[in-house]
Amino acid sequence: MIYTKVIIIGGGFAGLKVAKKLHKTKMDVLLLDKKNHHLFQPLLYQVASAALSPADIAYPLREILKHQKNTTVLMGEVHSIDKEHKVVHLTNGIKYTYDYLVIATGAKHSYFGNDSWEEHAPGLKTLVDALSIRERVLLSFEKAERIDSNLEAEKYLNFVVIGGGPTGVEMAGAIAEIAQDTMFKNFRRIRPEKSKIFLVEAAPRILPPYPESLSKKAKKTLENMGVKVLTNTMVTNITHDGIETKNGFISARNVIWAAGNQASPLLKTLDVTLDRQGRVIVDKDLSIPDFPEIFVIGDAACAIDKKGKPIPAVATAAIQQGAYVGNLIRKEKPKSKRKPFRYFDKGSMATIGKLKAVACVGNFKFSGFLAWLAWGFIHIAYLIGFRTRYSVMLEWYFHYLTGMRGARLIHETIDTEHDPNSSSDPSIQE
Ligand SMILES: Cc1cc2nc3c(=O)[nH]c(=O)nc-3n(C[C@H](O)[C@H](O)[C@H](O)COP(=O)(O)OP(=O)(O)OC[C@H]3O[C@@H](n4cnc5c(N)ncnc54)[C@H](O)[C@@H]3O)c2cc1C
To answer: Which of 198, 237, 252, 267 could make an S-S bridge to 242, C-beta 3.0–4.6 Å?
Structure first.
């Protein structure tokens, strides 16, 4: 018997949902991902800020799909797609044919054409990114402690987060907590609580897609935590010494990039129309024009809702799109019989720190402890696996009770040549 062959590229929120929808079908499903794990990106900033460990927010794809006998998981990076011949090419030269193809390759951060900034301002998309940011932040305090010159030490105690979206807000709040709570009384020569944390946003307000009242609340909460929120501040350059903006220079050895997204370069090989972020402009059924067997979903897709607005690049949209496409493939619906994808907006929330968050569900806006509680429940509910849920709950309990962070480990040695912060700074050599 010949089974319908389905290839899914990407085991993130969107791709994994498609795979699960094809459980117990007579289809032969191949899930390809360059990583061996599904990553819960909404909690990445907690790994970057040493509150959680990588294994708390990542789960092996094989383990998740081990009971799904019709599904094979293969680790590999897809290099190009030949849509005319229905072939997917991997970087190692292997190729696979398909009847249906689902592309769910997500997005990565973009520096708006200034790729050299990445060296000084890492972004937050993968576990490696989160660990690298964690390393930089923790090393900064260590370096500041070793420096005799106060002026030089200050540079290591200045932290800049660029981008006032949810990730930037969460990251700035977390660094403020590290400086004020976690590191408190840990050092003898420096006072971590005197660290300066800047959140820089080009738009007139932080959390731009949220209602204005919540943006104001988030700003006030951050300011109360000691974060300087600089809006209307466009970054023009980033160097080893800090950031240049239209309003002046900020000296800092620690800059984190939380602005701008770019879809995976793989999409260019499809040879279809892309939007400014490199996402595929998909039809109403999330397939691409003239190729009803190819779907693009999640952060890789530019899809429009029934009001003509772009569907946001969030996990809930990716999951809903995955479920929709999984059902279409399961029923082998021809394009003419497919109802358009409908996005159901479940609301947005961003946490700012311990017991502090803002949330907006329909017309209902709330903030503070209630929003934080809702944020916590939702994130725990969406985490995959009993072990991760349990360990995240325990870590949070421990952190919120004591202010301590369980993953405060530095892997590099402080004088390592690979340390980006130490490159040419004579003042820290002993
Ligand atoms: C720091 C951060 C915080 C966020 N916070 C929230 C939040 O609070 N709430 C919310 O709703 N959303 C949040 N998001 C957005 C949300 O995580 C994304 O919208 C969601 O992950 C998109 O799912 P996806 O399946 O499209 O892509 P992803 O989850 O990114 O998965 C893409 C997968 O494709 C794989 N892949 C990529 N290219 C290839 C290739 N060429 N070959 C093989 N495999 C490949 C990747 O390894 C990855 O596993 C956040 C995102 C980030 C980065």
So the answer is: 252
